[in-house]
Design brief:
The chain has 474 residues and is an alpha+beta fold. It has four domains: 2-140, 2-Layer Sandwich (Beta Polymerase, domain 2), CATH 3.30.460.10; 142-227, Orthogonal Bundle (Hydrophobic Seed Protein), CATH 1.10.110; 259-384, no CATH class; 391-468, no CATH class. It contains 24 helices and twelve strands. It has helices spanning 11-22, 32-38, 54-60, 108-113, 135-141, 150-156, 159-171, 177-186, 195-206, 211-221, 224-227, 229-232, 247-257, 263-271, 276-279, 292-306, 311-323, 335-345, 350-362, 372-384, 398-405, 411-426, 433-447, 452-468; strands spanning 2-4, 28-30, 46-50, 65-66, 72-77, 80-86, 88-91, 101-104, 122-124, 128-131, 143-144, 174-175. Strand 5 and strand 6 form a beta hairpin. Helix 13 packs across helix 19 (350-362), helix 14 (263-271) packs across helix 17 (311-323) and helix 14 packs across helix 19. It is elongated and about 90 Å long.
Length: 474
């Protein structure tokens, strides 16, 4: 079916279409960019399909680049990179991910028939839309529907199951019943998808405005136990008087209420209580979950390693999960205690940690507003943030110690600096070269009796105690 439709393409994209057509070839904007245009969204990239073979595309666009066997040539038009792909049909998907063979020289109709969802199987040549699978109707009605037989589409490429869920959350569309059922039926095929591709789709889900819906659909279709089974253990686990939801429901509501746009912070909100089922003691309103943040941090590291996240991202999320239970009560904690909180968490993480704490509170079903104590804490952190909270902020450094005592670089120097920092955090006015030099001379008497091996053991204990400290009462 061909339909007229007034779409204004960017000049760079129209130029590629015109160039192909003037060379005697067909050219259509296709896929997600056309879908987004029809939804009045800004396309992130542009794809064009054509009956020209890859070598013919390169003849039309001499400065283009062809790097794969799937018929896609990258063309630069003005400031825009456009992927121009030859019409193709795919033969067999033995790995449930990639076609065993690709056939060029087919028709536009055959090319559109191999695509994943009807809303992505539309084509536009500058004057008319080609819509063979009622994709425009599904766009209008807000429906994610597989092209042809849904089971076949997912057997061909199992990643499409995650894409269906991501599009549902991203566009706030519903998944058509047969397509939804096919996801449930074919869910075990997800094991054929690489961890990296699953990770990328998960991150895109977290960045949608309805991330809760995405995780809920992963749960109801049976995909979540195959991807993050640790989250599933919270299903049906009741909490205590501070929560009205089960652990699983609380985690996904925390995700939805997370005020941050950083996917890592949102993931921390989703996983912040993932350790609770393992440590639950008692029942009813008096149930306890001691040390769940530490168990949760370990589980979070396992989850993210399994999904091939980068180490920096893993460390960030694990840090937020581990420290989301930081203690603070108005009137109980001194400025020294606030400084120690900043030292423990890191000033660079405080805004994100606050976001996780807010998500935790709002996702409990008990609270509706940001608590006054967090508002006060933010003000106090702003007040003390220029005070020394790390050894690098001391007026006395490792070189000073080595010169003063004739020490060589090593753990003994680190122990001395941390002990000096303890004193300065109690009273920032002590952060002077004169005071710290005098104090160092006293502390060094004891440290001179300590071997380097013993000093390393002290530093390890010191760091572990700092990392595991839960309450700060100055």
């Amino acid at each position: 079916m061909a339909m007229s439709y007034p779409i204004k393409l960017p000049d760079d994209i129209q130029l590629v279409l015109n160039t192909l057509q003037q060379a005697g070839y067909e050219g259509y904007v296709v896929g997600g960019c056309l879908r987004d245009q029809l939804l009045q969204l800004e396309p992130k990239d542009w794809d064009i399909t054509t009956n020209a073979l890859p070598e013919q595309i390169q003849q039309v666009f001499p400065k283009s680049l062809y790097l794969n066997t799937f018929g896609t040539v990258t063309v630069r038009s003005g400031q825009t990179e456009v992927e121009v792909t030859t019409y193709r049909s795919d033969g067999g998907y033995s790995d449930h991910r990639h076609p065993d063979q690709v056939k060029f020289g087919v028709t536009l109709q055959e090319d559109l028939a191999r695509r994943d969802f009807t809303i992505n199987a539309l084509a536009y040549n500058g004057t008319e839309i080609i819509d063979l699978f009622n994709g425009q109707t599904d766009l209008t009605n807000g429906v994610i529907r597989a092209v042809g037989q849904a089971n076949t589409r997912f057997q061909e490429d199992a990643l499409r199951m995650l894409r269906a869920i991501r599009f549902s959350a991203q566009l706030r569309f519903k998944i058509e019943p047969d397509t939804y059922q096919a996801i449930n039926t074919e869910k075990n095929l997800i094991q054929h998808v690489s961890a990296e591709r699953i990770r990328d789709e998960l991150v895109k889900m977290l960045l949608t405005e309805d991330a809760l819906k995405a995780v809920w659909l992963l749960h109801t279709t049976g995909l979540l136990p195959l991807i993050i089974p640790e989250l599933e253990t919270g299903v049906g686990v009741q909490q205590n008087l501070h929560h009205i939801y089960t652990v699983f429901a609380h985690n996904i509501f925390a995700l939805q209420f997370c005020p941050s746009d950083d996917w890592r912070v949102r993931l921390a909100a989703l996983l912040h209580d993932v350790g609770k089922p393992q440590v639950k003691q008692g029942t009813g309103k008096e149930a306890t979950f001691y040390q769940h943040e530490h168990v949760g941090a370990k589980l979070t590291r396992q989850i993210m390693k399994r999904l091939a996240f980068a180490n920096d991202d893993i460390n960030k999320v694990v840090h937020l999960v581990k420290h989301h239970m930081f203690y603070y009560n108005m009137g109980e904690i001194t400025d020294a205690g606030v400084r120690r909180l900043v030292r423990r968490v890191g000033l660079e993480h405080l805004t994100d940690l606050m976001a996780v704490r807010i998500a935790d509170r709002m996702g409990s079903g008990v609270y509706k507003d940001k608590p006054l104590k967090l508002v006060e804490l933010e003000k106090r952190i702003e007040y003390v943030q220029k005070d020394p909270t790390s050894t690098s902020m001391l007026a006395y450094d490792g070189n000073d110690a080595m010169v003063q005592f004739g020490w060589k670089p090593g753990a003994r120097v680190g122990v001395l600096l941390h002990r000096l920092l303890d004193e300065v955090m109690d009273d920032p006015k002590r952060n002077t070269k004169e005071y710290l030099t005098d104090r160092a001379s006293i502390l060094a008497i004891e440290l001179n009796k300590v071997s380097e091996q013993e000093a390393r053991a002290i530093m390890k204990t010191y760091r572990e105690a700092l990392a595991d400290l839960n309450a700060y009462k100055g």
